[in-house]
Amino acid sequence: MSDLGTFLGELASDTPTPGGGSVAALSGALGAALASMVSNLTIGKKKYADVEEEMKELLGVTETLRLELTELIDEDAEAFDRVMAAMKLPKESDEEKAARRRAIEDALVEAAAVPLAVMGKCVDVASLAKVAAAKGNRNAVSDAGVAALVARAGAHAARLNVLINLSGIRSDERRDFVDESRRELERLAERADRTADEVMQDVLSKV
């Protein structure tokens, strides 16, 4: 991803990418970064010596997720750019129309798969924020709460991007992919909401 100012300028422009899918990945990355911060503010503190190893492990996972989600910011935009390119294919003859439809659906499958991966990682970030809130430095518990909230926002933002891409996939051969993706979206959405609510209950009891 480019620097934040440039990214926001591109986001505000009249081009379709980067868009909501990239914002979903950014939200997840922000949540992971905050969970990492809570871990870093806990590690090395005598008061939290009993959870130091757990916090080090947590930090390793949150940093991996932060980097993965940062990469997905651009991957989401690139996937949708391929959809746009497929839509520009010629459609004069029946053969060209059929080839164009196949190319669009192939690109839509990828464009749906990327935010679906983002959603799963955002849910993982929310779960890690729960650990950070419960065991991390209490002075940073609000940051753990924000981590969970932006992770939940990222999860639901990614869900919307999956759904809009799935809506363009209509061939029978892709029906299983569409149905399985929709079921996974519901499962992840429920987990994101439940986890974030649990984190907020914990955080609000401590601030």
Radius of gyration: 20 Å
The biggest beta sheet is recorded as: none
Task: Name the beta content range.
Answer: under 5%
Note the quaternary state here.
single chain
Taking the alpha carbons of the first and last residues, their distance comes to: 34 Å
What level of helicity do the residues show?
over 70%
CATH class: Mainly Alpha
Provide the domain count. 1
Describe the global form. elongated
- SS-based structural class? mainly alpha
CATH third-level topology: Four Helix Bundle (Hemerythrin (Met), subunit A)
Number of helices: 6
CATH architecture classification: Up-down Bundle
CATH homologous superfamily title: Formiminotetrahydrofolate cyclodeaminase monomer, up-and-down helical bundle
**Average pLDDT level:** 97
Low-pLDDT residue spans: none
Q: What pattern of helices and strands is seen along the backbone?
A: HHHHHH
Describe this structure in words.
The structure is a single chain. The chain is mostly helical and 207 residues long. It has one domain (20-204): Formiminotetrahydrofolate cyclodeaminase monomer, up-and-down helical bundle (Four Helix Bundle (Hemerythrin (Met), subunit A), Up-down Bundle), CATH 1.20.120. The protein is 79% helix and 0% strand. It has 6 helices and no strands. It has helices at 4-12, 20-40, 52-87, 94-135, 141-166, 175-204. α2 (20-40) packs antiparallel against α3 (52-87), α2 (20-40) packs antiparallel against α5 (141-166) and α4 (94-135) packs parallel to α6 (175-204). The chain is elongated.
Could you give a quick summary of the protein structure above?
The chain is mainly α and about 210 residues long. The chain has 6 helices and no strands.
